Amino acid sequence: MKVVALIVVAVVFAQAAEIPKLRNFRNPADLPPRSVLFPRPSQAQGPGYFIPSGKHAHTFSTRGICGQVKYRQSERIVGGVEAVPHEFPWQVALVVDNSWFCGATIIASDWILTAAHCTDGGSSFEVILGAHNKNIVEPTQVRIMATEYTMHPRWNSARLQNDVALIRLPTPVSFTPEIAPICLVPSTEEDHVGDILLASGWGLDSDSATSTTANLRKVTAPGISVEDCQAVYGNGVLDSVLCIDTTGGHGTCNGDSGGPLSYINNGVYNQVGLVSFGSASGCELGYPTGFSRISSFIDWIVSVTGLVV
Asked: Which of 86, 117, 152, 250 is catalytic?
């Protein structure tokens, strides 16, 4: 399969759910995944788009609080199952322009990490924190409207490269057992070939599904080499991409875009990738899924946010 046959992984599944009437709120179940077919033309950016100065009033670290799980976890899984409610307190449901759905992660009290193809051309972002069932308003949820965002300066929408973006919240969020940051890995992080990695999101649970899932789901899969990924998608897959083996259809799908790929080290969750692309042929055929490799972009993330890893 050629690189031109890629489709970006975006959001997940949905089931009917009653939600309170909220101003400017649409049930995420009604929203299609933010998917991108190759090639994609450049987008006009919204008024909140900014180019970082690289200067910070302060730096900060989330070590000691990031990547900590406070709710009971199920055993290691393969094939995809529903997550324990609030098992991953850094998981974000992202509604773009009240029209599209993506995933994202909390990396600091005022910063959200996602894919550039999710934010490209966007103007407003409803950031849903503390959710398990994204289609209802749960008491643990915090919903924040954000407009400020930036994308990696080398984001290439035509080749789907450097697919990383940051959203700045208008006010910092308070951390709770259901809302907390994930740890990010340093630039020296290993390549994770053969390691069991964990992806989570609300994306489609099958190729026949017509909407994203209501409840957060998770799946584990081994990392593979860039060369093995290039054998499927071509040399457009750069070293800044981390791929997983989805043999048997055990991987991410449309609607998971921007969500995390994690590695558990001594009980602490470390984000090693974010969902970028998968095969246009479908999610259940066993083709690799591609993630933006966090270690390749951590210097940029640090320069924008001031986060110390």
From this structure: 117
| 271 within a domain of the structure (yes/no) | yes
Dihedral-angle region of residue 130 (phi above 0 means left; psi in -120 to 50 means alpha; beta otherwise): left
**Separation CA 249–CA 16 (nearest Å):** 25
How many separate domains does the chain show? 1
137 domain-assigned: yes
Beta strand pairing call for 81-82 and 111-114? unpaired
Task: Provide the domain limits for residue 120.
Answer: 81-305
Q: Fill in the amino acid letter for 146.
A: A
Q: Does the structure show a pLDDT above 60 at 18?
A: no
pLDDT at 191: 95
239 a catalytic residue = no
Annotation says 132 is catalytic? no
In a domain, 105, yes or no: yes
The single residue of 163, 205, 245, 256 carrying the catalytic annotation is: 163
Q: What is the CATH number of the domain that holds 132?
A: 2.40.10.10
- 163 in catalytic set: yes
> Could you tell me if residue 35 is inside a domain?
no
Catalytic-role residue among 35, 211, 240, 257: 257
- Per-residue model confidence as pLDDT tens digits over 274-289: 999 888 777 778 889 9
